[in-house]
Amino acid sequence: MNSVLLEIDGAIATLTLNRPESLNALDRAMSLELSALTSRLEDDDSVRCVVLQGAGEHFMAGGDIKFFHQGLDEPQDVRKLQMEHLIGEVHTTVTRLRRMPKPVIASVGGAVAGFGVSLICACDLALAADSSYFTLAYCHIGTSPDGGATYALPRLVGVKQAMEIALLGERFDARRALELGLVNRVVAAAELAAETRKLAERLAAGPTAVYGRTKRLINESLSHSLVEQLQAEQDCFAESAADADFAEGVRAFVAKRKPKFIGR
Question: According to a count of CB atoms within 10 Å of the terminal CB, is the N or C end of the chain lower?
Fold first, then answer.
């Protein structure tokens, strides 16, 4: 059984973490499959929106503790090397999600723990069921966070809140996640799939290349000076203005009709 499922429906690709018996906990197989599939989707221009979700009732319970436990009998240097390889693999996935030139939506329910928190931070938008709950949790097994959590959390929630989330590892609910800015919307659990699909369809019909440039501008903004960011905006606007979608958008506005974007 594949640890990650890929379904492509029109311009929408859905990645489903598929280990529901272990709350979709991350092991080596899932890490490799996530890396391979995100690489494929990053380069697939026919896909204009990506949805990331979990099979069953939970999004992801973090790393697979049973998998970690199996490695405890290894010498310390071997265990360190194994973890370096595993974390390196999942970090390629985080990088691809962030730079993917199309919108990525996290659709989460149930447990969102450990690397699951890192994953939703790497996505552009996140919808959460009202029954979902969150915890960074790494401190409870005696390790520091990975997956970009220590990069994303201070930027999303501020340093003090990030410290509390990371050092205490306390569980909080979807409403608190919304207040903190970890998710964009909280919906009834029964409506999560429909609301996710509605949002994905809206984004998949949009100006995909422009979304990709906008992602890059926002993600790079915190490391830019104002002058650098203004130049980046100028370059991206000019590049967008040469696209077919710009011409369609302007013509549609003047004609007072809805634009029909093709994504380039």
Answer: N
166-189 pLDDT, tens digit each: 999 999 999 999 999 999 999 999
Angle between helices 115-122 and 149-157 (to 10 degrees): 60
Tokens 């994303």, residue located = 152
Domain boundaries, the chain: 4-204, 208-255
Tell me if 47 sits within 8 A of 103, measured CB to CB.
Answer: no
Max alpha carbon distance in the chain (Å)? 70
| Cα dist from 178 to 98, 183, 220, whole Å | 20, 5, 23
pTM for the structure as a whole: 0.94
Nearest by Cα to 140 from 112, 170, 111: 170
| Strand pairing report for 104-108 and 125-129 | parallel
Written as one string, the DSSP assignment of 205-264 is TS-HHHHHHHHHHHHHHTTS-HHHHHHHHHHHHHHHHTSHHHHHHHHHHHHTS-------
pLDDT digits (tens, 9 = 90+) for 98-121: 999 999 999 999 999 999 999 999
DSSP bridge pairs for 16: 5, 53
Class of the domain covering 4-204: alpha beta
Helix ranges, the chain (H): 28-42, 65-70, 76-99, 115-122, 149-157, 159-168, 174-180, 192-204, 208-221, 226-241, 244-255
> Helix 159-168 to helix 149-157 angle, to the nearest 10 degrees?
130
SS3 5: strand
Bigger pLDDT: 197 or 66?
Answer: 197
Q: How far apart are CA 138 and CA 148, in angstroms?
A: 13
Tokens, residue 158 = 């501020």
